[in-house]
Amino acid sequence: MEDGRKTARGSGGARPVRGEGAAARPGGPGARGPGGPFRPGFWRSPLRGPRLTSVLGIVLLAGIPVLFVTGLLSYAAYNPDLARNDRTPDKGLLGFFLFPWPTEPHWLYRLTQGVHVTLGVALVPVLLAKLWSVIPRLFTWPPVRSVTHALDRLSLLLLVGGGLFVFATGLLNIQLEYVFPGSFYPLHFYGSWVFMAAFAAHAALRVPRALRVLRGRRARTEEEAGAMAALAAPEPAAPTLSRRGALTAVGAGSLLLAATTAGQSLGGPLRSTAVLAPRGREPGGGPNGFQINKTAAAAGIRAADIGADWRLTVRGGPRELVFTRTELLELPQHRAALPIACVEGWSTSDQLWSGVRLADLAALAGWERDAPGVFVESAQRAGTFRSAGLRANQVRDPLSLLALRVNGAGLSADHGYPARVIVPANPGVHNTKWVTRLTFGGNA
């Protein structure tokens, strides 16, 4: 069992030296601080040290880039460079990576967003443990010793603050309890870029040091040796747990969170294990007994909006057409087995949808060849995503439907009756429900 008394020499470095070791540690000799957390004896856990911090840092180094890339893919799936879809209009150069979101494989968004959410939840214990391991370094005194030190402190502030903000907004969005002012999408998007910029800079500076610690090698400079020594408590308390035990506890916590989250994306028998997901478990039986991203009541749908007087208007081409639901059912019907996958990480298994192909409706409106994108509008009165733009490749996919039925039955009101859009690999909220108007060529 480790007692936390090892200096940087015992962790692969040299003895602490004055200037960045003894004097630079919180409240060290020659640096009288205001007491409290700035006092050298305040932080006494024997678990803190270079090796614990290095192991946790390497885990985050492996996980956070995957989290960031899958987040960017999720953002791209919303086709935000279409003007009417753009919820971050000032993204500028940050949107350099956007590309036409594909429709194949049809489970693509279900996979990328499932990985994003499950991995993000699983990394929470690791992130908190990493912050705990280095928290004494946040209370160095004096707070700023030079211009270089000030820049290092600023980058650390952006790293810690950005990480906490991004993880907090993501977790609250997953739990449908988003409380931050403003829209989740731009706040999470910009926060992620700030966090990743700080993370990349921090990784470039700290990863070589962490690898040397894990390989048992000495620090290359006295400054590095002092910085590593400053991670350990100068006056450690009696140990109650080894560092290996602490890492085991963190790993077990991550695995438990992953196990109680992943089922909402994997489906099947594992869906019942998603006890931490608001929409992880099956909502009921019957043809319409699968997850719903928003109910008709929550969307402000009234009986008159979807009653006998409901009509679908198709325009944007040489001809404008108006259909009743009966007339739509008389058109050639096609089927597609597709899931619903949502930004909160949950998804359904493939459901069997039937209805009219979007490409066929474009042809009826006069786009017999090369159907363009479409702007879809809903009868929804409340909440966000009352409309959505779809690209031409999404309209032309033979599995893209204006769905009228699901699993052999008519759509329920909560699933979009009288008609809804269903497109392969499309985020759930862009599979617009209660559709009233399709404008082809009008999604720019």
Short description, anyone?
The chain has 444 residues and is an alpha+beta fold. It contains 11 helices and 10 strands. It folds into 2 domains: 36-259, no CATH class; 303-440, Alpha-Beta Complex (Sulfite Oxidase, Chain A, domain 2), CATH 3.90.420.
If helices are DSSP runs of H or I spanning 4 or more residues, what is the number of helices?
Answer: 11
Strand order of the largest sheet: 2-1-10-5-6
SSE-based structural type: alpha+beta
Radius of gyration using CA atoms only: 27 Å
Mean pLDDT: 88
Tally of distinct domains: 2
How many strands, what sense, and barrel or not for the largest sheet?
Answer: 5 strands, mixed
Low-pLDDT sequence parts: 1-31
State the helicity in percent bands: 25-40%
> Which of globular, elongated, flat, extended, rod-shaped describes the shape?
elongated
> Distance between the terminal alpha carbons, to the nearest Å?
64 Å
Order of helices and strands: HHHHHHHHEEHEEHEEHEEEE
Strand content: 5-15%
